[in-house]
Amino acid sequence: MTSETETIVLALGGNAILQPGQKGTAAEQRQNIAETAEAIVELIKMGHRVIVTHGNGPQVGNILLQNEAGADQVPAMPLDVCGAESQGQLGYMVGQALRNELRANGLPTSVAAVVTQTVVAAGDPAFASPTKPVGPFYPVDRGTTLGAERGWVMKEVRPGQVRRLVPSPDPVRIVERDEIRTLIAGGTIVIASGGGGIPVVEHPDGTLRGVEAVIDKDLAGQRLAADVGASVFIILTDIDRVTLAYGTPEQVPLERMTLSEARDYLEQGHFPPGSMGPKVLAVIRFLEAGGKRAVIAAMKDAARALAGNAGTTVTT
Amino acid sequence: MTSETETIVLALGGNAILQPGQKGTAAEQRQNIAETAEAIVELIKMGHRVIVTHGNGPQVGNILLQNEAGADQVPAMPLDVCGAESQGQLGYMVGQALRNELRANGLPTSVAAVVTQTVVAAGDPAFASPTKPVGPFYPVDRGTTLGAERGWVMKEVRPGQVRRLVPSPDPVRIVERDEIRTLIAGGTIVIASGGGGIPVVEHPDGTLRGVEAVIDKDLAGQRLAADVGASVFIILTDIDRVTLAYGTPEQVPLERMTLSEARDYLEQGHFPPGSMGPKVLAVIRFLEAGGKRAVIAAMKDAARALAGNAGTTVTT
Questions:
Q1: How much is the average pLDDT of B190-209?
Q2: Closest-CA residue to A76 (of B63, B55, B187)
């Protein structure tokens, strides 16, 4: 499409780090991340500035489970701290793989993962109705008791098994945005806002405090993109294109859509809340905030998608 | 001593984050870290640029224990990844506390925790003789079997209980040094090299790979100080001053020592290898590498120690 240098926020889907059916060993993650790094470096080779964000669902899930399993020996950490741990884990693994791939390509190897907090509004309606399941599955009895003890909202998510639900509030501001901008300006590939960022609320006196919640990583990626002034926002996922009437005989994969079409399709209920919905919403917000172009595409198609030859491109 | 702006690397001891006897709950850590942040902001108020590094012993110990406790459900992560998780945890908690304390003092609130790798030499002799105990205590039988299965070196550290030993190689280079410098130049308080940094070796082709080892956090702090060109290196710990013949009736607390005295005392065996030894060695290396002044002091005395009114000041 264009050969000019663009600042791109790239949101990696879960399968960029862990494939369905894998258990989540370090070796599996390293292998997947090495392939992901190749795809990212394709974009960097074209001269673009890239900021990487990523999900943390399976990783923070495992950390929560480990916290629970060890709880009779060491104090379990709250969800915000576990999220921070997952940022350390993935920031390290993705950062190392990117540095290695950049070096293998003879490119400058400046990469940094920044521990990122994301401000959410204390009054966000999400706090009144937690919807996002996190952590281990418990048998109903045990889970109900535990939930009562800890003040957790529990829900039967499989017959006989309950899980904790936490709120999923809207991201308002990336706390470390200025520091991320400084690094980008210096030519660093930044990894930030992993898992949507560690959710914090800002008290009236300006004090930040962590909250037990989960922020959608694509919506946080949009905040990050807006906060750093990115012109392109790429959401990589496990499907080739955004598809209308997905899973029906009438399904229509879309090569392009306009902002107003995206709004209409979202309103018409084409995109499920837990999957494509937030991605399309993130894209809409990105364009509304002045972004030039957004793409939703499969991981493997990252470079072609940027050129408009794969995935779904959305423009005003 | 001086009112000019200095670039200071501040290495926090374990008790800056967790006090002896505490279990390590998030609430305990937050409380300690809030007090630590007050002490750090005292230095920032004086106009100095501060880079913070910290230990991670109790935190990575707990993460290893949680990994072990959950190992029948989710794959345990190797030590380098667990170290990265501890950097996320503490980078978040220390970063948030510093931001809050800066704001409370009406100061600019630019803080960032950078996930940090530290290069060690593949040929470091430490790899031939692991000395650093990490992770859970096991009964001899179980630990010996586990060690054999995983290729771990185990040692009986208490009667009837064994623990894994890992190498403690020398830090060679902070991988993210340029990015940390960029942030410092932009006025950001950087938290880096937590737990000595994630140990990585550099293969002949330049590829970085994590290794299961632990780098001394004060020696890594010195590398960081040299790599970012800090003029002052402050090591905060749980004793008031460096002391000769420590614990004997003849003990002599030192207000100052010269580089050559420090070398002599270290050679004469005044400082135990596991505690004051590496701190004094780190100070020696710092001054040898061109640093102006190093201080070893108690946490509570940070600001007074910088002024030469507490702790032990070491100069060439």
A1: 97
A2: B63
Of A77, A104, A186, the CB nearest to B182: A186
CA gap B33, B299 in Å, rounded: 11
Question: What is the residue type of B212?
Answer: E
Chain B residue at shortest CA distance from A199: B92
- CB-CB neighbors (< 8 A) of B110 in chain A: 178-179
- Residue among B27, B31, B41, B33 at smallest CA distance from B13: B33
* Nearest CA distance, B108 vs chain A (angstrom): 12
Residues B87-118 have pLDDT tens digits of 999 999 999 999 999 999 999 999 999 999 99
Going along chain B from its start, the domains and CATH numbers come out as: 7-119+174-263+270-307 (3.40.1160.10)
Q: Coil, helix or strand for A236?
A: strand
Looking at CA atoms only, how far is residue A219 from chain B in angstroms?
Answer: 21
The verdict on ipTM greater than 0.90 is yes
What average pLDDT score do residues B201-225 get?
Answer: 97
| Separation CA A272–CA A237 (nearest Å) | 14
Q: Does B31 touch chain A (CB under 8 A)?
A: no
Is the pLDDT confidence value at B2 over 60? Answer: no
The structure tokens listed for A306 are 């940027």
- Inter-residue contact B268 to B207 (CB < 8 Å): no
Q: Are strands A49-54 and A189-191 parallel, antiparallel or unpaired?
A: parallel
pTM (global) more than 0.90: yes
Q: Which of residues 231-290 of B touch A (CB under 8 A)?
A: none
Tell me, rounded to whole angstroms, the distance of Cα B59 from its chain centroid.
12
